[in-house]
Amino acid sequence: MRALILEGPAGEQPRLRLTHDQPEPSPGPGEALVHVLVAGVCATDLQLSQGYADFRGVLGHEFVGRVDAADDSALAGRRVVADINASCGVCPTCVAGHPHHCPHRRVLGIRGAPGAFAERLAVPRTNLVPVPDSVDD
Hints:
Elements: E1 3-7, E2 15-19, E3 31-40, H1 43-49, E4 57-58, E5 62-69, E6 79-82, E7 85-86, H2 92-95, E8 106-108, E9 112-113, E10 120-124, E11 128-130
Parallel strand pairs: 8-9
Antiparallel strand pairs: 1-2, 1-4, 3-5, 3-10, 5-6, 6-11, 7-8
């Protein structure tokens, strides 16, 4: 699978590389496999490429995609965007209703989770937001 990745030793300036052999994502329980249709570059991506947060992996967190597979049949084939914060759902912060502040959260393409500058990515189903047919990509 094609993907744009940041690589290199932690603590050093990362290098951008386009790869054609990135492993396919394997969605876990409660996750959907999303085929990326379009993805946008933002200031955070540019900062990450300069070493911000010492991120290594697939960049990108602003995207529109189509659900290829999900354990929720209502999502299959739907165009979606996603909340990029994948919280744990069980810590005291999440239980108190503050999942965006979860100390264990992963953030797509920024912290602990591959991003959308790839052909496909796995996203928690609860993070997906369907895109109305009246809105183009």
